[in-house]
Amino acid sequence: MKNQELAKIFYDIANYLEMEGVAFKPYAFQKAALFLEGLEDVEKIYKKGGLRALEDLPAIGKSIALKIEEYLKNGKIKYYEQIKKQFPVDFSGIAAVEGLGPKKIKILYQKLGIKNLNDLEKAAKSHKIAPLFGFGEKTEKNILEGIAFLKRSKGRFLLGEIMPAVQEILAKLKDLREVEQVSAAGSVRRMKETIGDADILVVSKNPAKVMDFFVSLPGVVKIWGKGLTKASVKRKEGFDMDLRVVPRKSYGSALQYFTGSKEHNIVTRKIAIEKGLKLNEYGVFNGSRMIAGRTEEDVYKAIGLPWIPPELRENEGEIEAALRQAQGEVPGLPEIIDYKDIKGDLHCHSDWDGGENSIKEMAEAAKNMGYEYIGISDHTKFLRIEHGLDEKRLLLQKKEIEKIKSKSKNQKSKFTILHGCETNILADGSVDIKDEVLEKLDYVIAGIHSGFKMERAKMTERIIRAMENPNIDIIAHPTGRLIKKRDECLIDFGKILRAARETNTILEINSYPERLDLKDSYIRRAKETGVKMVINTDSHHKDQLRFIEYGIAQARRGWAEKKDIINTQPLDRLLKYFK
Ligand code: DGT
Ligand code: CA
Ligand code: CA
Question: Which CATH number fits domain 157-246: 3.40.50.1820, 1.20.120.530, 3.40.50.720, 3.30.460.10?
Answer without folding.
Answer: 3.30.460.10
